[in-house]
Amino acid sequence: MAIVVRLDVMLARRKVRSKDLAAHVGITEANLSLLKSGRVKGIRFETLDKICEFLDCQPGDILEYAPDGGGAE
To answer: In terms of Cα–Cα distance, which of 1, 2, 6 is closest to 61?
Structure first.
C-alpha cells in the first residue's frame, strides 16, 4: 500500500508508551499494534484526532504517502 504508518516513530519521539496512547484513544493495545504495523485498511478520523491530540502532532507526522511503499526516512 502507498500509505506508510509512522506511528511508532512518533511514539518514540514523544517518549510515549503504546499502552498509554491506547488508553487515551480508547482502543485496545492489539488494535494499536495493528495500526502501528500498517495492517489496517482504514482509520476513523475520530481515532486519528485523539492520537494527534495526545501526541501533539499533525496527521502528516503519522501517515506518509510513499508510492513505492518504502517511504522516506
So the answer is: 6
pTM listed for this prediction: 0.86
pLDDT digits (tens, 9 = 90+) for 5-35: 999 999 999 999 999 999 999 999 999 999 9
Q: How far apart are CA 8 and CA 12, in angstroms?
A: 6
Spatial distance between the Cα atoms of 3 and 6, rounded to a whole number of angstroms: 10
- Which cell numbers in the block locate residue 18? 503504546
> Across 1-73, where does the E strand assignment appear?
3-5, 63-65
Rounded to an integer, what is the distance from CA 71 to the centroid of its chain? Answer: 15
Residue tagged 491530540 (cell numbers): 53
- b/e 26-42 (16+ beta carbons within 10 angstroms → b): ebeeeebeebbeeeeee
